[in-house]
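FAQ

Q: What does a record look like?
A: Structure on top, sequence underneath. For example:
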């Protein structure tokens, strides 16, 4: 509650000092009475305290039994950023996981960046470069040394399922997400459904925040309802018709990736992998682009000095901001009309103008300086920040006058671009072979390697943001778009989601209020999904939606209703064979299994595409052995269960939908 009120009050302070957003007028009413135990008046002794514990206020509010459960909870917190720091602080002050067997496992694969320090309050300048999970765990232990916490740095996904395995998930009481992307949330959502575990999610965007509770059998899942996907920028807009600074920044960011990451990675793969060219040979477009990158990186443009890098940067300037623009307006002149006679350059489409390089233009030299230093870094050469030297060397570069090709066409839409790329595939074989023959043999460059650059927005000395800003603003100058500052470019190119400490404190507090309802096993009516906008002092909650129900008629005309949380529970023991599983379904449910799969592996099918001989062998195998044989995975015999997907029919031959089949690895139980 203190975190919630603190977040709201803190935003009001920001409004007072900044004059931005609307302050609270009169009163803001917020109630969390549903967290309180329903039997408060029955036995007051359970709320009595001795006054010698930091948790006395919690005991006086919720009772000793609730505080005992809180202290023994086993949590998995995914993310140790802005929200994650708030969650860990709340766990420490609430006394969550402070007694055995309580345990908090927090994982975050990211390292602390300087830009994190203003809102991720558990971190200090000395922590920059350290793993977030480790620094946050060490910091929160100073708040409560009794906290039982283990930091991890693993990405949560399919590649870490050997770490976060069945035994790990079955031991959890709650999963709390503190993530910044939907894909990771959806993965955790699926795992929580698989293992029937509650998940509490929250997110922020500036002054806006939301929380969602996902409860086994009580609510819908996180993935049951989603926001529409964000609209991406059309390729033709990026390449030929930008009209916003966001377009030119994305274009410049793509240029950075292509020139300083993709190209050197391709070179290293070519030099180290004898089969690299064969691997990219399946697609002509990919193969051509790869060969062109290799030729540009290892051919005549391969630099031997910083002066060579300056020359390359000067030629790149000419190609990107003069030649290609001149070619575009030659193919589509300012007076161009479409098939109906309407002006082509209208609305969002604005005709560009080529830039003439000037060594006296600070923006032009900024681009040359940044591009040359990045090129030098990639090739292991010493760069320089001497603008006067760069200006002098750039002025020495002699370039022949560019003559645009009047027969060359320009794609006006993504569809046209796709069609033109397909047409260009014809007759590429000769060009591809010519490029292959022009490349130096890997054996002639033994030990030679380039350094790919990962875009790092927070280091002001590495020229990354300098390059993207200059590159973007030059393209903006081509199209008469208002340029952006380095700060604006950093925010857009680095895809920084605005985060304010007040909003993160609010949503973390709201989630932790739901924790008290969880440990008291309250009904769905007590829980709340909350939506807030501190800019207008608006906080509202809604009851979570129950899961959608499906129904199927079973043997004896019994009706079986199920949701995404339900399973067909089978406890025949780990030695039960596929045939015994089939017999079990026919005897108990009157359903015949006609197809069975485990993950992506098809274990059994009665249909013609699977040989009868193969089915005959598989019917005799025990289920764990069947999975290992067909799916080629090692089954953990200590795991609680295996999950299968089954296609079944009734005795009349009608297909019916059923939930997943949970095959328990525990000893047989005839009641199931």
């Amino acid at each position: 509650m203190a975190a919630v009120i603190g977040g709201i009050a803190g935003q009001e302070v920001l409004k007072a000092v900044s004059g931005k957003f609307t302050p609270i007028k009169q009163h803001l009413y917020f109630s969390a009475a549903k967290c309180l135990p329903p039997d408060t008046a029955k036995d007051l002794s359970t709320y009595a305290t001795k006054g010698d514990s930091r948790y006395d206020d919690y005991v006086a509010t919720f009772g000793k039994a609730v505080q005992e459960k809180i202290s023994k909870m086993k949590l998995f917190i995914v993310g140790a950023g802005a929200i994650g720091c708030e969650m860990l602080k709340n766990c420490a002050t609430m006394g969550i996981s402070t007694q055995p067997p309580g345990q908090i496992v927090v994982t975050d694969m990211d390292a602390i960046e300087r830009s994190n320090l203003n809102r991720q309050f558990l971190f200090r300048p000395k922590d920059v470069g350290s793993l977030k999970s480790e620094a946050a765990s060490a910091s929160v232990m100073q708040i409560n040394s009794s906290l039982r916490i283990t930091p991890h740095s693993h990405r949560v996904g399919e590649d870490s399922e050997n770490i976060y395995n069945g035994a790990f998930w079955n031991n959890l009481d709650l999963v709390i997400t503190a993530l910044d992307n939907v894909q990771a949330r959806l993965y955790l959502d699926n795992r929580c459904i698989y293992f029937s575990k509650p998940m509490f999610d929250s997110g922020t965007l500036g002054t806006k925040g939301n929380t969602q509770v996902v409860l086994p059998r009580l609510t819908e899942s996180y993935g049951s309802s989603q926001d529409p996907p964000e609209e991406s920028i059309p390729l033709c807009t990026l390449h030929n018709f930008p009209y916003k600074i966001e377009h030119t920044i994305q274009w410049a960011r793509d240029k950075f990736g292509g020139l300083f990451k993709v190209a050197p990675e391709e070179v290293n793969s070519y030099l180290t992998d004898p089969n690299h060219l064969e691997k990219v040979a399946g697609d002509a477009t990919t193969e051509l682009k790869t060969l062109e990158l290799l030729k540009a990186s290892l051919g005549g443009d391969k630099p031997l000095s910083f002066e060579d890098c300056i020359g390359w940067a000067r030629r790149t300037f000419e190609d990107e901001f003069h030649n290609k623009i001149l070619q575009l307006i030659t193919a589509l002149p300012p007076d161009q009309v479409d098939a109906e006679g309407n002006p082509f350059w209208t609305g969002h489409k604005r005709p560009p103008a080529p830039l003439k390089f000037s060594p006296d233009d600070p923006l032009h030299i900024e681009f040359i300086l940044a591009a040359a230093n990045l090129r030098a870094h990639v090739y292991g050469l010493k760069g320089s920040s001497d603008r006067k030297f760069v200006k002098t060397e750039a002025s020495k570069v002699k370039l022949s006058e560019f003559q645009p090709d009047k027969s060359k066409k320009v794609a006006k839409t993504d569809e046209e671009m796709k069609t033109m790329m397909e047409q260009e595939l014809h007759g590429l074989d000769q060009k591809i072979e010519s490029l292959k023959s022009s490349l130096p043999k890997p054996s002639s460059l033994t030990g030679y390697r380039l350094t790919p650059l990962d875009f790092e927005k927070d280091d002001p000395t590495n020229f990354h943001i300098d390059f993207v800003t200059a590159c973007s603003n030059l393209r903006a100058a081509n199209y008469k778009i208002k340029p952006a500052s380095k700060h604006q470019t950093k925010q857009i190119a680095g895809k920084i989601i605005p985060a304010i400490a007040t909003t993160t404190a609010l949503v973390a507090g709201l989630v932790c209020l739901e924790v008290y309802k969880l440990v008291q096993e309250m009904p769905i009516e007590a829980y709340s999904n909350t939506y807030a906008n501190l800019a207008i002092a608006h906080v509202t909650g809604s009851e979570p939606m129950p899961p959608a129900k499906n129904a199927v008629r079973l043997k004896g005309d019994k009706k079986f209703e199920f949701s995404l949380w339900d399973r067909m529970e089978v406890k025949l023991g780990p030695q039960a064979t596929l045939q015994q599983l089939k017999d079990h379904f026919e005897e108990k449910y009157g359903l015949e299994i006609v197809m069975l799969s485990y993950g992506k592996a098809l274990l059994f099918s009665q249909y013609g595409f699977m040989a009868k001989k193969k089915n005959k062998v598989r019917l005799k195998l025990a289920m764990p052995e069947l999975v290992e044989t067909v799916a080629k995975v090692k089954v953990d015999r200590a795991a609680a269960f295996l999950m299968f997907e089954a296609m079944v029919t009734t005795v009349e031959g009608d297909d019916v939908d059923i939930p997943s089949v949970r095959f328990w690895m525990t000893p047989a139980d005839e009641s199931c």
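Q: Is there anything notable about this one?
A: Residues 272 and 560 are 59 Å apart (CA to CA).
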